[in-house]
Amino acid sequence: MLFNSFIFFIFLLVILPIFYILPNKRTKNLFLLIASYFFYGYWDWRFCILLAVTTLTVFFIGIKLSVTSEKQKRRNLLIISLIVNLGILGIFKYFNFFISSFSMLSNKFGVSLDYLHLNIILPVGISFYTFQALSYVMDIYRGKLEPTKNFIDFALFVSFFPQLVAGPIERASNLLPQLFVKLKPTRKQIQQGIVLIITGLFRKVMIGDTAGRIVDQIFAEPNLYMSFELICGLVLFSIQIYADFSGYSRIARGTAKLLGVELMKNFEQPYLSRNITEFWHRWHISLSTWLKDYLYISLGGNRKGNTRTYLNLMITMLLGGLWHGASWNFVLWGGLHGIYLSIHKFILNGKKTTIRYEYKGFLSTVSFIFSILITNILVLFAWLFFRAKDSLTISIFFDRMIHWKPSELSPRFLIITVSFVCISLLLDLLEYFTKSHTYILNIPSKYVSAGVLTALLIITFAFMFQSDPLPFVYFQF
Amino acid sequence: MKIVKNIFFFLLTLTIVLWIGDLYLRMSGIQDPSSNKFDPTLGRIRRENFKYVKLNEGFSINNFNDYSYLGPSYPPEKSDSIIRIALLGDSYVEGFQVFERDHFRSITENKLNTQNKNRFELLNFGRSGLGIANMFAIDSLMIRNFNPDYILYFAGINDFYSEAKDPLIPGVDIINGSGIFVNNHFSKNKIKEFNNTNPILQKSALLSMINDGRKLIFPMRYFFY
Mean pLDDT over residues A304-312, rounded? Predict the structure, then answer.
């Protein structure tokens, strides 16, 4: 079920009271586990089987790893875990993609591989929970984590419904210890949870979905649109994907808080980044840190010389791109970000950058705005490869930029785009300068906070009542 | 006293944020206020010079002209050298799903004007939900005032089966099986209902959105996604 659907809120209204009255940790965790499987099985009950296979494999390998001291055996156990989990991911997500790619090559030699295509659907969120489960095994293998012997706690860690289908990709070291004790949300957590759910829903529905309606039309038939209109479409997509995913992450964190669980932040105003390195510290944080910890560092990170560092960076970003979807455009997108990061690393030459902007006079503000603009132009350019469904779309975009076609509707497209930019920017600036996702709670009068939240809820529900919910963009990953 | 103050602040904040939200809905094209108004002769018609963004089964950004129909503002008067063609039909002709530049009206008009010595003007009188009887009534009450040389009716099979369900759109009465009379005697209750609500819906995108949602509440369709 989608977070932006009424059925989810009914689900939440049913499970929360039951969860609160359950007496102890064991029954609470068991109940949440059942609720999580129900939540996941609501799409298709067969998805639950894959989730169970991943859970069982990782759980038993984790225990086995903890009692095995021989290096080679430990390595073998890790490899088995990787083969099983990445194998499932590979079959369901990438098999048809690689067959199609090889088929294009083999067709030139008169050999058809099309018969190998599997008639399967991509289980929702498989990339997310697979990566989460793998981090658990790898942490045990590296000696950073003690495995849990409580199967229910572990199964809940893998399937915890608020973050099951689109993250944040949690680390066992953060989530598991919270499940070892009786979950009991504090008053503050409940308040923050409600704020995160309402603001997340507003972002997802009123910014993400509404921008997405226009984006989908423009990218479906880009040849119908003039140059400026296409640029607006691309800007709107950058807003859509951010609002969509960050909105989802907020609802996930908010829902978890209502259950007494703290999930990591996944977004920290990425479009206010001053350079591409900072962007990746702020965009999809749970994935970028996962890739850094388990892929980039495993490849050697920056410990094996400059050339190897750049190579490792490129490999990480290319695979990170492929993680997003079984298509070459995602690989291109990842590769482009890999190039950006490599160039920025080269320019920095070992120097560290500050994490956030600090006011040091007028010039520092000008420099802040200018660097944000440059970063956003680079990010925007890369989004084109991410969103374009084929090379024809990309070529139409380039053609329209080179051979500029004026539009009589430019002013109206501009107003629409600026409206979306302004609302998105306003919400981000408030968070950036208050350093909080729940700044609404910092307003001295609770009645004013309640007024803001009620208004946001009225607007969002009014839209939800008159339109079909759009799935999260990241569900496909 | 403190409670009154708190409630006041709550309502004040609520109103301000809703107002900002309404502004956002309009500017971003998420929702327009009501595009209709009432005319005693023609019933429910489009508001003149009303700008809209449509995202239903397609995408278009357009506006109704000075005379409440789509396309360039051709006034009722015309010179004899101009050949004027009125296009009349339902949503297929209205074409909310495409931009004006891609609409068959403008494509045809451009073609006719480049391939002929005479100047052609094509007027789009399409309107969602019209049946053949409504088209005939609108033809008699409005379109003939624009002095068209030709009136093209675009009607599918569905347009012959029923009149528009909208009680504020003119139709026809067939008397004794042969005489056809335009009927624009609208129900007084419906006019009153429309005039009571429409001025508010014309001013607020948010209330228009709530009004649209209200019509869909009973099917309960969204509960099962």
Answer: 88
- In this structure, what token pair is assigned to residue A436? 């909080």
DSSP class of residue B62? E
Judged against a pLDDT cut of 90, whether residue A464 lies above it is answered with no
Give the contacts of B135 (CB within 8 A, at least 6 positions apart).
Answer: B88, B89, B153, B155, B159
* B56 interfacial to chain A (CB closer than 8 Å): no
Q: Is the dihedral of CA B202, B207, B209, B212 positive or negative?
A: negative
Q: Please report, rounded to a whole number, the percentage of residues in chain A having pLDDT higher than 70.
A: 97
Q: Which residues face B173 on adjacent strands?
A: B181
Average pLDDT, chain B: 88
Is B29 part of the contact surface with chain A (CB cutoff 8 Å)?
yes
Taking the mean position of all CA atoms in its chain, how far away is CA A158? 16
Predicted confidence at residue A166, as pLDDT, reads 83
Q: Would you state the structure tokens that stand for residue B100, as one six-digit string? A: 């004006």
Q: Which of A10, A210, A224 sits opposite B30 (nearest CB)?
A: A210
Asked if the structure places residue B20 within a domain, the reply is: no
CB contact under 8 A, A452 and B17: yes
Residue pair A359/A365 in contact by the 8 Å Cβ criterion: yes
**Same domain for A247 and A379:** yes
Closest CA to B60 of B90, B37, B91, B22: B91
Averaged pLDDT, A150-161? 93
Residue of B nearest to A454 (CA): B14
Q: Residue A477: pLDDT above 60?
A: no
> What pTM, to 2 d.p., does this model score?
0.90
Instruction: Write down how long chain A is.
Output: 477
Say if B91 falls within a structural domain.
Answer: yes
Domain membership of residue B222 (yes or no) is: no
Is residue A307 domain-resident?
no
One domain, residues A174 and A193: no
Q: How would you classify residue B182: left for phi > 0, otherwise alpha for psi between -120 and 50, otherwise beta?
A: beta
pLDDT at A317 over 60: yes
Q: Report the pLDDT value the prediction gives residue A362, as an integer from 0 to 100.
A: 85
Does A471 sit behind a cis peptide bond, omega within 30 degrees of 0 on the bond before it?
no
